[in-house]
Design brief:
It is a single chain. By secondary structure, the protein is α/β, with parallel strands linked by helices. The chain has two domains: 279 residues, Rossmann fold, CATH 3.40.50.620; 76 residues, no CATH class. The chain contains 18 helices and nine strands. The strands form two sheets. The chain has a seven-stranded mixed beta sheet, sandwiched between helices. Strand 3 and strand 4 form a beta hairpin. Helix 5 crosses helix 7 and helix 10 crosses helix 14. The protein is globular, with a radius of gyration of 20 Å.
Length: 365
């Protein structure tokens, strides 16, 4: 049985994602295709424009056999932790190969081996962001790594596989730099422009029916958290370092919206994505112990499957793998951070994200 997996956010699912899935099937002919997908919050520190259930359904309708949620504790993280968590789940799912998009045909396993050898030599230059500093360090030491996000993520996927000795092969699908962009689609949506030709009909329909969300909807909630907590209390939030709690307090009063606020907080030492993730942690009052708890107790939550995916789930269950398919008293402890994150989203779109929700099932009786 050929089991292939990939990692995605589908924010939103567009024609480029459909093309990627089709190419995997045409090139590798997998018996099962699994997607590990971010939930209601994404890696760059933002809210997914459509909720996880809508995006999982769209993925299943467009060729994915099984969608597993990437927990918040991994999904809203820098690339190395995002990749590590996703690969850990794919390994638990007994995936044979991971496939990801890349702007060029690189030997990611060789790059991973060399980058791991260089780990002890890396020193942070605090005049620039960690991501830029690390990329420059790799280049200086002969690693052909660019600032293209797909290649940087690909390197981190490969590093996680090599470092943990996972038996997962690595395959790539070459993508052009002018391929479909989820960022441009989100921009078109915010400008109320037509993008129906860039997305499958299921995505377009979801945008017409469902309420999308963004940071603009949550800025007042963020303000409340910052204003109602002292600097000492804010300092307890995950990744609140180097006096950033004072900077947040200082810039809040003179900021009219989230975009203006984050621009005022921005500095050379922190990327915009890093600060947006910090704002998510602040909004949700996330503690480091909660992140570590998920790391130590990972889980597999099913968001959707078709008949092929159902058969594979049954196969894994026979081999003692466990899955979360609904939320009850037993699951509340494992999902505590996820439930809190989703409840914040529900303040705006009022759509229940957990209790009473079951995976989307296509063609399953």
């Amino acid at each position: 049985m050929r089991v292939y997996g990939f990692i995605a956010e589908f924010n939103p699912f567009h024609n480029g994602h459909k093309l990627f899935i089709d190419k995997i099937k045409q090139k590798y002919h997998p018996d099962v295709l699994i997607a590990v997908m971010s939930g209601n919050f994404v890696q760059r520190g933002d809210f997914a424009v459509l909720d996880k259930w809508q995006r999982a359904k769209i993925a299943i309708e467009n060729g994915v056999d099984l969608v597993i949620e990437l927990p918040f504790a991994y999904a809203v993280q820098p690339a190395q932790y995002f990749a590590s968590g996703a690969i850990k789940l794919l390994n638990a799912l007994s995936v044979d190969k991971i496939v990801f998009g890349s702007e060029s045909d690189l030997d990611f396993q060789a790059l991973a081996n060399k980058s791991l050898q260089l780990d002890g030599k890396f020193q942070q230059d605090y005049s620039q962001s960690s991501a830029t500093n690390l990329t420059d360090f790799y280049r200086y030491n002969g690693l052909v790594v660019t600032h293209d996000p797909n290649q940087l993520l690909g390197l981190n996927y490969a590093r996680s596989i090599v470092e943990n000795h996972y038996d997962i092969g690595i395959e790539t699908i070459i993508r052009k730099r002018d391929d479909y962009s989820a960022t441009s689609i989100r921009q078109l949506f915010s400008e109320q422009k037509d993008f129906s030709d860039l997305v499958p009909s299921e995505t377009w329909s979801a945008f017409q029916k469902e309420r999308s969300v963004s940071w603009d909807d949550f800025f007042n909630y963020l303000k409340f958290q910052i204003l109602s907590h002292s600097e000492t209390e804010l300092r307890q939030d995950y990744q609140m370092v180097e006096g950033l709690e004072y900077k947040l307090k200082k810039e809040l009063d003179s900021s009219q919206n989230f975009t203006e606020f984050i621009e005022r907080v921005k500095s050379k030492r922190y990327t915009m994505a890093r600060l947006r993730r910090l704002m998510i942690y602040t909004l949700l009052n996330v503690k480091e112990s909660e992140i570590k708890n998920v790391y130590q107790n990972p889980y597999l939550r099913v968001l959707g499957f078709d008949q092929v995916g159902q058969k594979y789930l049954n196969f894994l269950k026979q081999n003692d793998q466990t899955f979360i398919t609904r939320v009850g008293k037993k699951e509340k402890t494992a999902l505590e951070l996820e439930l809190r994150a989703d409840s914040i989203r529900q303040l705006v779109d009022f759509s229940e994200q957990n209790f009473g929700r079951i995976p989307y099932m296509k063609g399953v009786r």
